[in-house]
Amino acid sequence: MVYDDTFSITVNGQHRRVPKGMTVAELALELGLEPTRVAVERNLEIVPRSTLPQVEVEDGDDFEIVTFVGGG
Question: Is 27 helix (H, G, I), strand (E, B) or coil?
């Protein structure tokens, strides 16, 4: 068995490994997204945007992340 300092998660259907201790806001930034302009669902529950900097990613989490697009 391999032990390391990462977790295995799923983001929008894609498997990826992220460092332990990463917050959801940091995950968004790593994906090239602005945390203030995304909606995040974690394990079928909405994560309030105001808590993204405090909520840590856990092993096995399943995220759906969508961005807001302005237009007119």
Answer: helix
| CATH (residue range 6-67) | 3.10.20.30
Provide the pLDDT for residue 72: 62
Closest C-alpha among 48, 58, 50 to residue 23 = 58
Domain parsing of the chain, residue ranges: 6-67
pLDDT at 30 over 70: yes
d(CA 23, CA 3): 21
Beta strand residue intervals within 1-72, DSSP E? 6-11, 14-19, 38-42, 45-47, 62-67
Q: To which residue do tokens 């007119």 refer?
A: 72
